[in-house]
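Tokens as discussed.
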């Protein structure tokens, strides 16, 4: 939170802000309110890029501190994350049906819980099996 007092010959202005809004109050020399103003900062507005980000990544994995090995899971508190999980799950199921493979319950549950992260992980496991099939077990 920022707090700033501006004294000029005409009026006294107090400006304060939080992470989302900036507030300003103009007062006379007796400290009586003349006018007030509130402005929402542009970085706190949810734009289309933030919505797409929340759809693709319903939660974020990050290290809590640089020197520790603890993983902090930040879950985005919006419905966009759940919509994204549903879209990824339906896309995964339709892709498996299109390839005419057997639908594995464990992989479907994994994709339903972790979304795009699980799809990327399952894709890497499938690619590892493909590489081992081409080059043999010594690879």
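Sequence:
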């Amino acid at each position: 939170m920022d707090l700033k007092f501006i004294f000029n010959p005409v009026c006294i202005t107090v400006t304060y802000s939080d992470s989302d809004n900036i507030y300003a109050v103009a007062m006379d020399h007796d400290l009586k309110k003349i006018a007030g103003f509130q402005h929402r900062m542009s970085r706190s507005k949810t734009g289309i890029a933030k919505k797409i980000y929340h759809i693709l990544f319903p939660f974020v994995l990050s290290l809590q501190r640089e020197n520790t090995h603890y993983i902090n899971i930040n879950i985005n508190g919006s419905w966009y994350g759940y919509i994204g999980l549903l879209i990824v799950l339906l896309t995964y199921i339709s892709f498996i049906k299109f390839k005419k493979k057997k639908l594995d319950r464990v992989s479907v549950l994994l994709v339903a819980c972790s979304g795009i992260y699980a799809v990327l992980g399952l894709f890497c496991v499938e690619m590892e099996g493909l590489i081992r099939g081409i080059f043999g077990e010594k690879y």
